[in-house]
Prior knowledge:
Number of domains of chain B: 3
Structural class of chain A: alpha/beta
Largest sheet of chain A: 7 strands, mixed
Region (Disordered) (chain A): 1-29, 201-229
Number of strands of chain B: 19
Largest interface: A-B, 38 and 43 residues
CATH topology of chain A: Rossmann fold
CATH class of the largest domain in chain B: Alpha Beta
Number of helices of chain A: 5
GO molecular function (chain B): GTPase activator activity; Rab GDP-dissociation inhibitor activity
Distance between the termini of chain A: 29 Å
Structural class of chain B: alpha/beta
Radius of gyration of chain B: 22 Å
Helix content of chain A: 10-25%
CATH class of chain A: Alpha Beta
Strand content of chain A: 15-25%
Subcellular location (chain A): Early endosome
Helix content of chain B: 25-40%
CATH topology of the largest domain in chain B: Guanine Nucleotide Dissociation Inhibitor, domain 2
CATH architecture of the largest domain in chain B: 2-Layer Sandwich
CATH superfamily of chain A: P-loop containing nucleotide triphosphate hydrolases
CATH superfamily of the largest domain in chain B: Guanine Nucleotide Dissociation Inhibitor, domain 2
Keywords (chain A): Endosome, GTP-binding, Hydrolase, Lipoprotein, Nucleotide-binding, Prenylation, Protein transport, Transport
Number of domains of chain A: 1
Oligomer: heterodimer
Family (chain A): Belongs to the small GTPase superfamily. Rab family.
Strand content of chain B: 15-25%
Order of helices and strands of chain A: EEHEEHEHEHEH
Amino acid sequence: MANRAAPGSATNQQQQQQQPAATRSxxxxxxxxxxxxxxxxxxxxxxxxxxxxxxxxxxQFHEYQESTIGAAFLTQTVMLDDITVxxxxxxxxxxxxxxxxxxxxxxxxxAAIVVYDITNQETFARAKTWVKELQRQASPNIVIAxxxxxxxxxxxxMVDHDEAxxxxxxxxxxxxxTSAKTxxxxxxxxxxxxxxxxxxxxxxxxxxxxxRRITDADQAPRSTPNCCK
Amino acid sequence: xxxxxxxxxxxxxxxxxxxxxxxxxxGKKVLHIDRNKYYGGxxxxxxxxxxxxEKYSTPVDPAYGRGRDWNVDLIPKFLMANGQLVKLLIHxxxxxxxxxxxxxxxxxxxxxxxxxxxADEREALGSDLMGLFEKRRFKNxxxxxxxxxxxxxxxxxxxxxxxxxxxxxxxxxxxxxNTQDFTGHAIALYRDDEYLAKPAGDAMKRIKLYSESLxxxxxxxxxxxxxxxxxxxxxxxxxxxxxxxxxxxxxQVDEIVMDAEGKVCGIRSGGEIAKCKQVYCDxxxxxxxxxxxxxxxxxxxxxxHPVPNTKDALxxxxxxxxxxxxRRSDIYVSVVSYTHQxxxxxxxxxxxxxxxxxxxxxxxxxxGLALLGxxxxxxxxxxxxxxxxxxxxxxxxxxxxxxxxxxxxxxTCLDVLDIFKRGTGEDFDFSKVxxxxxxxx
Lengths: 229, 441
């Protein structure tokens, strides 16, 4: 389901990064405004953070997904009506395990998905502390979504849907129960975030001039488009 | 942590983080520990500002704005745009976690005032550092160095950079003492004058590095990362984690455990022991295995204005060549500001540093401080400079050297690559970085 390219669905474009955003066409669709956002994942180990991303970006699911290794910087595009929203997705790379996430991780993040496992009450409690951490460390207007993952395991549910919903509502978070295994609500939660993100000219998290990325062939340096170039 | 690792890395300074990243990428199972609850060790950027004041036991003043807007480096350095660290960043893909800005100005001190460092022929002709005839000689010198190819004797023009010294090179072009001074110290970036008597090849390579770096982004050869230098170790730590490295901050290291043959076999933290075949660490984790070889003084200065006579540059490097102020080693001034997200709006952070030569180091940096104009707050640190007692192969304990007074990362990278080679017996293979694991490349 992550391979359709109709408006309102995710498209698989992580292989096309070398093309400038402005000239990229989407299966012949009319070219439109491209907005790029940094999205970070947070949550206790083994709640399915990487699985959610893998499902969203590649449409894959592995029952015995190893602890995060080897891929911690994926991109995926979501089409809204006249805007292409490109997510630059940061996975924790396991650095959350011993509370060793670097400040760099939160830096400039415009969106976050805080994940818990609906079969494990403790991961929900931890999710709440991650939300607090984001409120403390991240940009004040970050869009946060709470994902109750493993909704396919409803028989083992330990976290009440309504309780999580109420918590999310109180704290201004988007909320969905998701399943990386069945793909339920996976694209939807990214879409909901895409809709909520501000897409004006000034969406830079810091609101100031940004630096540049350095690349191999950098004789003609490009600035990093934070949005809508 | 009660597991067995190929390597345990202690301290998350830049050198250790690069090593950790390279080891993980090479397929080693790495445990990386820091006793502090933050990344970066001595190469951290301190945030919020309150932490910095606390570190120096000084009461903070509300004039500085939001503490969280500050990220103050403990060690001042810039990246040469075409230097070793940039190559490492690009080849490992760590560059994608970082954003940089060019340093706006590169200045050199002469006779009590500062002038822009002329790094190409055009700038040489416009420079106020030299008289008309000297400018021509300097221009010819620069052109010769640019065109010199060690592999092609046709470009040598009767000068062999392997056997003839830099002093002889200067004499060949008739450069006067003043031009020699800014060339050696502000372009080739030597800290003292020992290079004059050595073969000219190294100096020529350094001059080329400077001008190639300058050519890359314009204004100056230097780059500086947004949010401070502390982002660099974090970036390499992330690389290590992505390749399976395990991270533990805020973890005491009580003992490096040696086996009967005198080789490391693990580390102990409280009652826990993590086994390993190798340990890599900074000198602070093994005080009994390093020797002090000098001292560096660094003075962090908070200011609410740019440095006078730099055309209001938001970032600057100023080099005071030793001879100008009767010293044996140069004084460095580096300035960054709110534009790099290292200070609250309107604020600047200057750092004056040098290798200590006397018993009163604060006196030694006075010429640097005098260039800055009014300073709101100073924090002075004199740090010892340590080197390992032995190269580590016999104990499998590899110790990095402390950060020296140079204002760029070239020596840092050389130390890292050398330790990696001692530890693994081979040069780092950049092709092991799998750029295509679903990521941007």
